[in-house]
Amino acid sequence: MTQPKKPKHIAIAGNIGAGKTTLTEILSKHYRWIPQFEDVDHNPYLFDFYDDMPRWSFNLQIFFLNSRLNQLVEISKGSETVIQDRTIYEDAHIFAPNLHEMGLMSKRDYDNYFGFFQTLKQMVQPPDLLIYLQASVPTLVGQIQKRGREYEENIRLDYLKRLNEYYNKWIEKYTEGPLLVVNVDNNKFAEKEEDLGEIISKIDSQLYGLF
């Protein structure tokens, strides 16, 4: 029997508070994958952005695009399986268009940014499996409040709702590669062993053809 090909790149996508980091940590331990998290601490634009969004939105998005592209280049060079918390697609399909729609990024900047993303996308491989954590706004709010991050305290409901709409639109059209959607309203993988087991068996069958 031939050995199934070792996956190189698993990515977890989802709105703020969906549980991406938690699931990344759990799966990286279970499968001995290398976890890769978003580096919020070393982002030189974040504070300026929160201070003056229209001025800094383009710079911030370019910074994110560059750091995620960098991650993808590193993943392709390595031989280990990496699990990535958030993807290069989310900035382009969710956060940037939302900033544009809210009047926080000019059309010129948005078109420039999205065109650049389209070019870069052709140069990188999509993930071997994308796991999307789908959650309703009340679930997101509950999880955001639970973790109590200071800079997230003022996130507005309409903002989360808009992001959710962008996420669902993107996932409906996602054809880059294998996709696993986990409904976080029903699946409490962080607390329930059997819910986590359900995710793991789906991942096994997607990646290794095990049933």
Helices and strands, with pairings:
Layout lengths: L8 E6 L5 H12 L2 E3 L9 H6 L1 H25 L4 E4 L2 H14 L5 H15 L7 E6 L2 H11 L9 H16 L6 E5 L9 H16 L3
Parallel strand pairs: 1-3, 1-4, 2-3, 4-5
Describe the structure.
The protein has about 210 residues and is of the alpha/beta class. It has one domain: P-loop containing nucleotide triphosphate hydrolases (Rossmann fold). The chain has helices at about 20-30, 45-50, 55-75, 90-100, 105-120, 135-145, 155-170, 195-210, and strands at about 10-15, 35, 80-85, 130-135, 180-185. A five-stranded parallel β-sheet has the order 2-3-1-4-5, sandwiched between helices. Helix 4 runs antiparallel to helix 5 (about 105-120) and helix 4 crosses helix 7 (about 155-170). The chain is globular, with a radius of gyration of 17 Å.
Total helix count? 8
CATH class, please?
Answer: Alpha Beta
Question: What's the overall geometry?
Answer: globular
Which structural class fits the helix and strand makeup? Answer: alpha/beta
The CATH architecture would be 3-Layer(aba) Sandwich
Strand content: 5-15%
Number of domains: 1
Cα-based radius of gyration, to the nearest Å: 17 Å
Can you tag this structure with a few keywords?
211 residues; alpha/beta; Rossmann fold; 5-stranded parallel sheet; 8 helices; 55% helix; globular
